[in-house]
């Protein structure tokens, strides 16, 4: 067992008594273990396979429900998340492959359990700022790691968190780009600001190292949105062009050739395979418009041969959250998800517009902006990935809900004080 294994063992298991002592620190520890997955950075199989996050969550729930105060604080998008979970449960019950669908439902239940208690625990501006910094650091760590790998001559290697392939890792890192930029600007400590800004810039080469085409589009959306919102002038064009040339200089030839296939997708087997999977998911939804073919990849793959568009096709994942929802949960599931997205964006723009009225720039609502951009980045990347149950995405939504509830409560207190 190496030094990294020992450090992670001490810190990881140390989060259990910490969670039993303080639910806030327990939540931070759980997010660190579950989202950042530092287990990916060690060598010992016993440490990698240790269920530290599971036991931290158990301790966190025990402390949270034993402590006085609200257990859940509900905002609009959270109702959508709960409705989506309920509909997934219905789709599990109606699935022809119940066991496979039940396994997916259990996994999704674990995914949203942490995010659902965020609004109850993250209830002050100070806690929110720390929580947002942690969310930014989760993908930022891999932005630093893979970005340095790419700049030092590395070519193809995703090296992301356990359980994520190259496409998932690219989306994860791209979603961290807006968070890293905005959080960095809030730090008074220069060394922290430098680390976050370094991760922000290295996230570009990191996404390139994954060779993910969907990740590349997500990365482009992230950088463009940040600079456009920040400057809204010719500076945006110049910054994006400069960044584009900088990234072009470090893109390996094989990766660039892979990017070029986006414009010639008819000749790319991978792209045509995804389109075939989209058509199959559509056929599945048309035949089962209410609850689809059954929750989860297992049920989808087993149903695939009965709905495939082409005889020579083979079962494969949809590689799109939209068609994934259609195939697994029908038009109702897709509708619930779209309403959740709409509610999230509406809440985010409401907070952002409030922040724009404050010329001092000190309003807490300003943090809605990076969360909004992160949601947009997910929507871009998710169009080409089967990641409707992406844990990091639900933390972004509930972080925005927590921000909304904190700002709403502060306004009530301010109003009461003025009266």
Automatic annotation (TrEMBL):
Record's subcellular location: Membrane
Q: Which GO terms describe its cellular component?
A: membrane
Q: Which domain of life is it from?
A: Bacteria
* Record domain O-antigen ligase-related: where: 198-338
Family annotation (InterPro entries): CHP03097O-antigen_lig-rel (IPR017528), O-antigen_ligase-rel_domated (IPR007016), WaaL-like (IPR051533)
What membrane topology was assigned to this protein in its record? Multi-pass membrane protein
Q: Where is the signal peptide?
A: none
Q: Name one Pfam family in it.
A: Wzy_C
* Record's keyword terms, sorted: Membrane, Transmembrane, Transmembrane helix
Q: Where do the TM regions start and end?
A: 7-28, 40-62, 74-98, 130-149, 169-187, 194-212, 232-251, 321-345, 392-407
Return the PANTHER family for the record. Answer: TEICHURONIC ACID BIOSYNTHESIS PROTEIN TUAE
NCBIfam families the record matches: PEP_O_lig_1
Protein name as catalogued: O-antigen ligase-related domain-containing protein
- What species was this sequence derived from? Geoalkalibacter subterraneus
